Amino acid sequence: MQQPTDATTTQALISEALAACRVLPPHERLVELNDRLRAELAQSVATVQAQMGGMDRGSVDWHRRQRALDAASNATAENLGSGLLSAAMHVAELGRRLVELNALTMGGEDA
């Protein structure tokens, strides 16, 4: 099980994931990023779900969070793929989903 990470480490992870398509890292690094991003996403998903428990179902904020959860679920349902570029694109997508969920967990409403 992955250890919880601080905000600085999470931001560095996200930055590396989003840059993966510009300069393709080795496949082993993409596997590591994939695993770490999935662990971070799981924590953020749990936080957003907890927030939703106190919201009016059907409100704008509730739907915003549900949409972000659905997008995260879709992203985590996919795998790295067999090619380096497809793996990099997948890692970048996981990074984008983490940015979106983290914005919601920090109280941001424009994710």
Question: Brief overview, please?
Answer:
This protein is mainly α and 111 residues long.
Q: Strand count, sense and closure of the main sheet?
A: none
Cα shape: elongated
Catalogue the unreliable spans: none
Helix tally equals: 4
Could you say which structural class the secondary elements and strand pairing correspond to? mainly alpha
Total number of beta strands:
0
Mean pLDDT score, rounded? 90
Termini Cα gap: 28 Å
Portion in beta strands: under 5%
Provide the gyration radius in Å. Answer: 14 Å
Order of H and E elements: HHHH
Number of domains: 1
Q: How would you describe this structure to a colleague?
A:
This protein has 111 residues and is an all-alpha fold. It has one domain. The chain is built from four helices and no strands. Helix 1 runs antiparallel to helix 4, helix 2 runs antiparallel to helix 3 and helix 2 packs parallel to helix 4. The longest helix has 27 residues. The mean pLDDT is 90.
Question: What are the defining features of this structure?
Answer:
single chain; 111 residues; mainly alpha
What topology emerges from the helices and strands here?
Blueprint: H1 7-19, H2 27-53, H3 60-77, H4 84-105
Helix pairs in contact: 1-2, 1-4, 2-3, 2-4, 3-4
